Amino acid sequence: MLGVLLLGAAGAIVLSLRAGELQLDLAAVWSALVDDAGGVSAAIILELRLPRAVAAFVSGGLLATAGALMQVLLRNPLADPYILGISGGAAVGALGAITLGAAAFWIDAMAFAGALTAMLVVFGLAHGDGSWTQTRLLLTGVIVAAGCGAAVSMLLALASDTRVMPMLFWMMGDASAAARPWPAGVVLVLALLAVMPFARDLNVLARGELTARALGVRVQRLRIVLYVLASLLTATAVTLVGSVGFVGLIVPHLVRLVLGNDQRVLIPAAALVGGTLLTLADTAARTLLAPQQLPVGVLTAMIGVPVFLFLLSRSPRSST
What are the Cα distances from residue 263, in Å, to 68, 73, 251? Predict the structure, then answer.
């Protein structure tokens, strides 16, 4: 199954390289990637479409992996990687940089710094007197996210008319400006390599904290490590393509329904499916109304909202 998903991911990337105002055949794609051929087609693929396709795939994989970790750690199949306010912190940092007219590098840097700051604030406040429960962490994340939302509204109100549109596109998710996706791809690969040794512990933790402790799992340390890792994955994804919702929420849940809850399979499968979904969504976003381009977050929301409502309507019956 993982081999099938890998082939599907490769097919989605190839489709993304071919599709656009200038339709290219497989021979042109192969020539640009392998033969290092020059010309307009090779320039379009290597300088425009390939970085965007890789950025969309990597971001989808990061969000889906973070969602899978959050859902097993919170023992809630509808948990979302944005639930801890990470996206809100990144939005405050990025929109603040855009308001000041900063260059693209500083926008990315401020987005990542804002995400990490939100993460540290949430973990610091949730720890409190030493007790660290799932409920306390969730409530702290909701409060921090609300504060970030107020800050974002203030930045939008204070921004000039020429800067409002880039800010709105960033908030809705936009892969067109992601010219440097390769470091985020390294983060995704390293994160998967770091998570897989914990797959057995996650399988045990999914059966309950008492069972995990009885079988020798160091639950508190596992939670801290994977909460921080999920936050870093989310921060990296948001920094790369902006705020894209529902990928980390829907993909792990759907993969779990099809492949089961074995984390050794679920986590890499969720990364592949999330990357494939966001790549296809980004391809549709730039081709459906070409030459006008839609924010990719709009399409993921149009897909995710009905799927989420369907899953939510099924959950009471499935639990009885």
Answer: 9, 12, 14
Domain 58-278 belongs to what topology? Answer: ABC transporter involved in vitamin B12 uptake, BtuC (1.10.3470)
Locate the domains of the chain by residue range. 58-278
Instruction: Provide the pLDDT confidence category of residue 319 given band limits of 50, 70 and 90.
Output: very low
Q: Greatest CA span in the chain, whole angstroms?
A: 63
- Distances 291 to 54, 86, 261, 283 between C-alpha atoms, Å: 21, 33, 42, 13
Whole-number Cα distances in Å, 21 to 44, 126, 177, 251? 11, 49, 18, 29
Query: Which residue shows structure tokens 């099938």?
Result: 4
Cα–Cα distance between 221 and 132 in angstroms, integer?
Answer: 12
pLDDT number for residue 80:
78
Alpha-carbon Rg for the chain, nearest whole angstrom, is 20
- Band (pLDDT 50/70/90 cuts) for residue 260 is confident
> Quick one: pLDDT at residue 305?
82
Question: How far apart (Å, rounded) are the C-alpha atoms in residues 179 and 104?
Answer: 10
Of 181, 177, 148, 223, the C-alpha closest to 62 is: 181
Structure tokens at 278: 């966001």
Residue 256 CA to residue 287 CA, distance in Å, equals 31
170: number of Cβ within 10 Å: 24
φ, ψ for residue 255 (rounded to 5)? Answer: -65, -40
State the helix-helix crossing angle for 161-172 and 296-318, rounded to 10 degrees.
40
Encoded amino acid at 38, one letter: G
Structural tokens at position 61: 């994989």
Name the nearest CA neighbour of 62 among 185, 169, 202, 175: 185
Helix H or strand E encompassing 148? helix 134-158
Query: Tens digit of pLDDT for each residue in 93-122?
Result: 888 888 888 877 787 788 888 888 888 888
- pLDDT tens for residues 47-82? 888 889 999 999 999 999 999 988 887 777 767 777
Share of the chain above pLDDT 70, in %: 94
Task: Between 134 and 138, name the one with better pLDDT.
Answer: 138
